[in-house]
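Task: sequence design from structure.
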């Protein structure tokens, strides 16, 4: 992946995902290194962040590099200064750009004009770094990927898109339960089905959460209203009311199922108030693994040295 962009999970193949996960698991057991000494990461954000910003900044620090956070007010991406101009300028200063944008077209434009690698740190279409951390977490907890079944309950959003593609690539069967009109879009579904035909995974969609969750190894949910959709919040609460993951619904999954959520969570909406603190929840392991998988990604993209034990 040296010198390449990561805008979508589809920029990776099955072997590359597994290699990244393996490296991330090793890095989780290792110490700070000088692998990326002299390298600089620009964090170009249009949206606020906790996990994405902190995990990328700590990742670069632990790898011996540096990071530079650029807030919306400082840059005015596409407003104060054009996206192509920002890409050209940052390419002269830094070694890699992680962009957190509203529109996926913005991160695509950045990549097309940048001479350094660009990482999609979240857009309205995908969240590939989150999906990689999710796959790493599933592997840690289950010891395998192929043959597992995952139920995603809720909105067919950017997180669902990336997780669906990552699951199909790695052999995890994916069941998604969404209200009519909120399903994963056909473009993503078609691509995932192509991956699934090669990996042996199965993809299944339904409007009934109980049908999707029955007998699965992993249960996943996300907020009903994402950033930029605040005006739809009240209507979405009504539409998604029966899609809350609670103890009753979770009981339909396997006894050893794990519960996942990318955070931030709206307790009492997509999940019942106490369920994220249950023994089945691995949400904070997911959050931690953002750090490790991004370290592996940065080393791979920038051609860093091997990690130190």
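Answer:
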């Amino acid at each position: 992946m040296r010198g390449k962009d990561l805008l979508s999970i589809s920029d990776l193949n099955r072997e590359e995902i597994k290699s990244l996960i393996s490296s991330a698991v090793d890095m989780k057991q290792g110490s700070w290194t000088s692998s990326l000494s002299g390298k600089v990461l620009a964090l170009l954000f249009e949206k606020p962040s906790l996990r994405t910003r902190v995990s990328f900044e700590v990742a670069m620090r632990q790898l011996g590099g540096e990071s530079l956070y650029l807030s919306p007010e400082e840059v005015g991406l596409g407003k104060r200064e054009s996206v192509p101009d920002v890409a050209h300028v940052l390419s002269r200063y830094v070694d890699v750009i992680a962009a957190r944008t509203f529109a996926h077209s913005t991160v695509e434009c950045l990549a097309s004009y940048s001479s350094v690698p660009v990482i999609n740190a979240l857009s309205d279409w995908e969240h590939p770094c989150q999906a990689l951390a999710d796959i790493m977490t599933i592997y840690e907890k289950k010891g395998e990927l192929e043959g597992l079944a995952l139920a995603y309950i809720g909105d067919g959003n950017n997180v669902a898109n990336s997780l669906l593609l990552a699951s199909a690539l790695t052999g995890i069967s994916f069941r998604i339960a969404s209200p009519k009109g909120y399903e994963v879009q056909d473009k993503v579904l078609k691509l995932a089905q192509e991956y699934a035909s090669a990996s042996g995974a199965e993809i299944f969609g339904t409007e009934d959460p109980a049908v999707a969750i029955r007998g699965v190894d992993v249960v996943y949910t996300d907020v009903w209203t994402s950033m930029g959709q605040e005006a739809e919040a009240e209507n979405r609460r009504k539409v998604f009311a029966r899609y809350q993951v609670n103890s009753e619904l979770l009981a339909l999954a396997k006894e050893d199922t794990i519960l996942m959520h990318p955070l931030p969570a709206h307790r009492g909406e997509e999940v019942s108030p106490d369920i994220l603190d249950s023994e089945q929840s691995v949400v904070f392991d997911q959050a931690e693994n953002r750090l490790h998988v991004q370290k592996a990604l940065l080393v791979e993209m920038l051609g860093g040295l091997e990690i130190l034990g």
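The first helix runs from residue 14 to 29.
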